[in-house]
Amino acid sequence: MRHERSSNLYEEACKILVGGVNSPVRAFKAVGGTPLFIRKARGSKIEDEDRNRYIDYVCSWGPLILGSTHPKVVQALERAISRGTSYGAPTKLETELAELIIAAVPSIEKIRFVNSGTEASMGALRLTRAYTKRNRVLKFEGCYHGHVDSFLVRGGSGMATLGTPDSAGVTESSAADTIVVPYNDIAAVEQVFEKFPDEVAAVIVEPVAANMGLVPPNPGFLSMLREATKKFGALLIFDEVITGFRAAWGGAQSLFNIKPDLTCLGKIIGGGLPVGAYGGREEIMNLVSPLGPVYQAGTLSGNPLAMTAGIATLKEVKKKGFHARLEKKSKHLAEGLNKAAQDAGCALRLNRVSSMLGLFFTPKEVVDFSSAKSTNTEQYKRFFHSMLEGGIYLPPSAFETVFVSAAHSESDISQTINVAENAFRKVQAELQIRR
Fold first, then answer.
1. Which CATH architecture fits 71-317?
2. Residue 217 DSSP label
3. What is the pLDDT of residue 163?
4. Every domain of the chain and the residues it spans
5. Within 13 Å, how many C-alpha atoms sit on residue 59's CB side?
6. 25 with 397: CB under 8 angstroms?
7. What is the DSSP string of 175-206?
8. Mean pLDDT, the chain, as a whole number?
9. Which amino acids are annotated catalytic?
């Protein structure tokens, strides 16, 4: 495939955009080469500026669970945009989307819409500190909760990709109250509460870690967090920005039958438009302004376009059999990739929860950030480019998640597996040469 147009556009972008991109992972630094500039997308396919078409497994980093430009979403947006893009005033759309979410997620009694997952986690953190009158927060290594200063401590996502465990510009005082322990480590959590029994305001966790590749919770891990937070008077925050409505209709919390105090949402509830939300028990949420003293505001929060796209998306996701069909496709893809790797003699650890997959080039079981980092990033780099040449668009990082959408056909899945068979053989052949 030729990528001259993308290369030229990247060169132009680098002159006026920081690094030529507006989000770090897009720059292809982790896999090398020039990032693709996308001109359009439909269903399971994207097309770059050089008119190359790919089967898309990035899905805009998760929100496009229906695929791109779903007719129901596009039609709803066309009607909405003719009425205005933003009013800075309440609309009935906000209530309609809130009702859909609350009906699906039992832990949410009241909700506040914001514009991103970062805003959601920032609002939830401030709220927990106000409610508990405590300052410390416990997070897990490799989990990413947006670029909030308090959470940019051993985070995942782009920070893992670029090999920077902390961000410059985050003061020591901002991070001083953040405690970080390994994901899935029950003993480490217990030790924190033993040391700070009356100081932890909240535990925030991705119930399925999806920013260090994909790492599922070990049996008993989430239930232990629920028990410990209740015992010591802390709040439990589930960051379901990625897993909300993708892991299951009610999110990962319904899949694992755990009820957190607060939930952060994003991605899918905006149908591909910028959105975020945090919600939970009424007594906690009533502390948010204008009812309470916790101030949080946003001109574009609950804007009619994001609400419209979210409503249209969730109505489709709610339909009978939606997740069952998505599960069947995702299972087919995972089994096919596993077999292709085995047949090629390539060491691959594949984690999957619902329609989310993590590919790790390591023989080790991947249960936390440390084991995720055992993946051979050079092998992923070669695999990524081989797949790209075969018309398959994967995340340009070994520490991101592969997403399957409802638009992916069985033909797409089969084609992906066929291309992967050749890609795994190439990876293994290069490994043998190096030896």
1. 3-Layer(aba) Sandwich (3.40)
2. P
3. 41
4. 1-41, 71-317
5. 27
6. yes
7. HTTEEEEETT-HHHHHHHHHHSTTTEEEEEE-
8. 94
9. 144, 239, 267
Using alpha carbons, select from 347, 427, 429 the residue that is nearest to residue 383: 427
What is the reported pLDDT for 164? 42
The runs of H, that is alpha helices, within 180-321 are 186-195, 221-232, 252-255, 282-285, 304-317
Answer for the pair 357, 330: CB distance below 8 angstroms, yes or no.
yes
Residue 133 dihedral angles phi and psi, to the nearest 5°? 60, 35
Over the Cα atoms of the chain, what is R_g? Answer: 21
**By the 8 A CB rule, do 184 and 221 touch?**
yes
Task: Name the helix (H) or strand (E) containing 331.
Answer: helix 322-344
- CB hemisphere CA count around 66 (13 angstroms): 24
Of 223, 207, 205, 23, the C-alpha closest to 124 is 205
415: number of Cβ within 10 Å: 15
User: Is 219 exposed, middle or buried, given 0-12, 13-18 or 19+ CB atoms closer than 10 A?
Assistant: exposed
Instruction: Tell me the per-residue pLDDT of 324-376, one tens digit each, with 9 for 90 and over.
Output: 999 999 999 999 999 999 999 999 999 999 999 999 999 999 999 999 999 99
Give bridge partners of residue 417 from the DSSP assignment: none
